[in-house]
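Write out the 3D structure for:
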Amino acid sequence: MAATVEITAVTKIFGTGADAVHALGPADLSVASGEFVSLLGPSGCGKSTLMLMIAGLLDATEGDIRVNGELVERPRTDIGIMFQDNTLVPWRSVEGNIELQLELRSLNPQDYGVRIRDLVKSVHLEGFENRRPYELSGGMQQRAAFCQAMVHEPDTVLLDEPLGKLDALTRELIRADLQALWMQKRPTVVFVTHSIEEAVQLSNRVCVITPRPGRIARILEIDLPWPRDLAVKNSAQFTAYVLEIQEMFRGYGVI
């Protein structure tokens, strides 16, 4: 069963005294098992900071975070995590980079051969298993990085603006891959983005975060059919969600 994320009165302040920066919070959020929830907000609002705290890579100043009922007090190895800048090492092939994530978790890559092949196929990287990162386009690198995040079959997946540096067409293609994989396995996903359309397309719920200090101003339920294909994106209901969120950010002076 996919994990549940519970965020309770979480605040993050960097520095002390006159140099202190109140980056986030207080924030409260409950992510149900198998949900796809987006943290949507402008640059500097603390959404990536919150994701790092869920992963145990950053401590909260106040409040607590639990994953599947367990208090997050250290980096978690049972989750999948993907950043805007991929973590591929240049001296390994695509397959070797995926295997590296297993090795770092003391898992035997030989036990995951079928899993690796299935992942590579699902993101359309067949034929590129033995290529090094420098031989791949940016989109292909991100697909390989996503395989890294998913290879150990995590119940919880954290995605920090993984499509932010890609061109529009490549982003659309990878969104479709991401959506298909989520629909197949239904892990709990927390997705950080500054793209309104991306959040609406991919999410069960969208958490709208204010400018710094980031607070969850509103959580929108996205009631659209799956898969969220081009027909759904062109629908009046999709447009209505996008316009509603745009009006919120206009009120904050963001757009």
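The chain has a mean pLDDT of 89.
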